[in-house]
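PT: before anyone asks, these are the final sequences, not the draft ones from last week. 177 residues across everything. Please model them as a single complex and drop the result in this thread when it's through.
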Amino acid sequence: MVTPDDNTYMMQALRLAARAREFEEFPIGCVVVNQNRIIGKGFNQVKMSNDPTVHAEILAIIDAAQTLKNWSLENCTLYVTLESCPMCAGAIVNSHISRVVFGISDELLGACGTQSDLLTNNVFNRSIEIEKGVLADEYLALMRVYFQEQSRCKKNEEDNGYPSYAYFKKLFSTNEK
Ligand SMILES: [Zn+2]
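LR: through. Structure below.
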């Protein structure tokens, strides 16, 4: 069940996604919440770090574990603007996060029920509660701006890499009402 608090925390994740966009990173933001307190934050930093593993979720999970001084994030909720990829879903399972809330579904990489479901069918046989669609319209608005900027400077065509405009259109077609 989505609560008013979910919107509040997702708003913080959206702010972090906007931060990523300022750095021309693919805009994804994430916060980890424990007992009504944000204990971890992250935004996608792949390009600026030259590191394909520094997704928003990974950084937020590391930050949260450092805050708690505990690798186990049981009873924590992770909020992320875009459905997590398989790498991040693996980190969510390994960190024992109990609940995941995301904004929009990722038709290409989503590992929280769209392309695959690593959270409810994980090796630990522990189901993780999933909520989706929280502040989805607000996030789509941010993504639209980002992709318009990207296509204007033709970066995607030149790089021929992720994320492409085709990817965005795919996101739109499945998430827009
Ligand atoms: Zn990821």
